[in-house]
Amino acid sequence: MSDGVVPGGRRTAWAWARPAGGAGILGVLVWQLGTVPFLEGVRAISVWSLLAATAITALATVCSAWRWQVVARGLGVGMSLREAVAAYYTSQFLNSALPGGVLGDVHRGVQHGRDAGDVGRGLRAVAWERAAGQTVQVVLLVVVLCAMASPVRPVMVWVLAAVAGTVALGLLLVVRSRPRGAASRRARVLRAARADVRHGLLDPRAWPVVAGTSVVVAAGHTGTFLVAAWTTGTHASPAQLWPLAMLILFAMVLPVSIGGWGPREGVAAWVFGAAGLGAAQGVAAATAYGVLGLVATLPGAVLLVTDRVRRGRLRAAPVAVGTG
Known about the structure:
Layout: H1 2-33, H2 36-43, H3 47-74, H4 81-97, H5 103-116, H6 119-147, H7 156-176, H8 185-201, H9 207-231, H10 238-250, H11 263-274, H12 279-296, H13 298-323
């Protein structure tokens, strides 16, 4: 009995720890800077900034959906681009509105898997698509931080050394832990992963789309942050803001947030302060970005309701026919 209770308890504790971590970061920022930066970030939002963020988000969403469509097709659970765009808008809205920042992706994977008749492949397609996008984002981040001035540029040599050592250690562990039995569960998982990568990511018809769309998506999110920064009164050039924005947005992947809130504002306060732009200004810009991002994904809320109504009617249709 204890074997079944402990893992469940750990999962429950982690489920509470993730939003608690984000709330803790926000609490520290309020304690140190007050509520004014957060309020200023909301008050500064204008019509033009909303229009710009919505347009940029639309482009990034179409590119993300295209990337997902290509990966899913390689895994044998393809869909139309229109379906992919609608589902991606919905997942982005759920990611922004719900704690954790990943529940929308889970919903997207499960729903598409059910529609395609294979929930496992549906979830794997989402996982590989998101992993590919974040990998490209990391590569771009490293290149930008090495090439452009930022508070972390002096330590980038040590960061690259640490990353290289970690990757080498990981590869070594994978090689040494290669399963001996061809029928073992680990062997099946590794074979499935290799097949997914080969067909979903590295196929000649897939990888150019995956790489190209990932670059556009990363640039789009960074551009939206620049809009938020300028909207809140940051007087800095794109060259000065670009590496800061990429570093701040990368913090959103940390698994301790409330719909993306928390680490983003914490890192924004740090890098803006270190760059001489002011920690409060960084929090205001990050707050504006969060609000702009939520508003720009509101079409996903409409699509979610519409999809629920449509599916409800489809489920009720056979019953209505039978009773008539």
